[in-house]
């Protein structure tokens, strides 16, 4: 695998980062995961826009403009295997003497990119759907930043794995009303389907604004699928006709069991079938342009 590190392309085995890197010491950095189809980065401008939002959120100047990022991304795709790839970008505040406050004067950021073959969900998973658990969302209040500090997400995802499930769906309680609502998955966004409508949580500070989430809402709008973007209550999660999970690597999956209970009839439903097909069409049409 060829990676990009601070201006150079090299085999991954040769890549070295200082132990004083603030990414290593503090988790002080942000990242992006971009799916690549037929060797073209899917929705690159949108991913780069979200990267800018994350960098702004941690007050780290963007080391590259869009043209430079595009060149790095294109080169890393060309130098790695697979028509479909899983591209990872990672920027930290660089290496400096350990101190919580930002280095002053600033030090050069660490800029890293790698890409590996993209394992899109196998047919069996599309047919069966996935099982999920729920857990209290114990993350910070800036979940809109795609921060590399992922310890809560790591522990929450592991809870699902330990329970023999694929993902943990996160629940917060409103401090004013005390009502529980759903935010997202540990590494995915979640939609509820009820009476033929899609319910999606709003893109606020409590969830990562998913690029796949946006694609699903765009596809729904074009195909006259009714949508409501608003807070989704825990009861709605448990009385859903269908539940859908989205992410760049999983695309769209049906959640067929939640906390051991069947969602609807326990099988992927018609909304999943329709959106999955439309998503595949969308992807292929974009890549043909
Ligand atoms: N994660 N929410 C969280 C917390 C995520 O980590 C992700 C993606 C998403 C979905 O966003 P998108 O549709 O843009 O991939 C939502 C990536 C895949 C990861 O960390 O590997």
Q: Examine the secondary-structure arrangement and name the CATH architecture of the largest domain.
A: Alpha-Beta Barrel
| Heteromolecules bound | N-(5'-phosphopyridoxyl)-D-alanine
Helix content: 25-40%
| Number of separate domains | 2
Number of helices: 8
Radius of gyration: 20 Å
| SSE order, one letter for each helix or strand | EEHEEHHEEHEHEEEEHEEHEEEH
Give the overall shape, derived from the CA principal axes. globular
Low-confidence stretches: none
Biggest β-sheet description: 10 strands, mixed
Q: How is this fold's topology laid out?
A:
Layout: E1 2-5, E2 8-11, H1 22-26, E3 29-37, E4 40-41, H2 44-57, H3 66-78, E5 85-92, E6 110-117, H4 123-128, E7 130-136, H5 151-162, E8 167-173, E9 180-185, E10 189-194, E11 197-200, H6 211-222, E12 227-229, E13 232-233, H7 234-238, E14 242-247, E15 251-258, E16 261-262, H8 270-288
Parallel strand pairs: 7-8, 7-15, 11-12
Antiparallel strand pairs: 1-2, 1-6, 3-4, 3-5, 5-6, 8-9, 9-13, 10-11, 10-14, 14-15, 15-16
The structure holds N-(5'-phosphopyridoxyl)-D-alanine (PDD).
N-(5'-phosphopyridoxyl)-D-alanine is lined by residues 33, 153, 184, 187-189, 208, 210-213, 246-249.
Question: Can you walk me through this structure?
Answer:
The chain is α+β, with helices and mostly antiparallel strands and 289 residues long. The protein has helices at residues 22-26, 44-57, 66-78, 123-128, 151-162, 211-222, 234-238, 270-288, and strands spanning 2-5, 8-11, 29-37, 40-41, 85-92, 110-117, 130-136, 167-173, 180-185, 189-194, 197-200, 227-229, 232-233, 242-247, 251-258, 261-262. It contains eight helices and 16 strands. Helices cover 30% and strands 30% of the residues. The radius of gyration is 20 Å and the shape is globular. It folds into two domains: 2-117, D-amino Acid Aminotransferase, Chain A, domain 1; 123-288, D-amino Acid Aminotransferase, subunit A, domain 2 (D-amino Acid Aminotransferase, Chain A, domain 2, Alpha-Beta Barrel), CATH 3.20.10.10. It binds N-(5'-phosphopyridoxyl)-D-alanine. N-(5'-phosphopyridoxyl)-D-alanine binds next to helix 6 and strand 14.
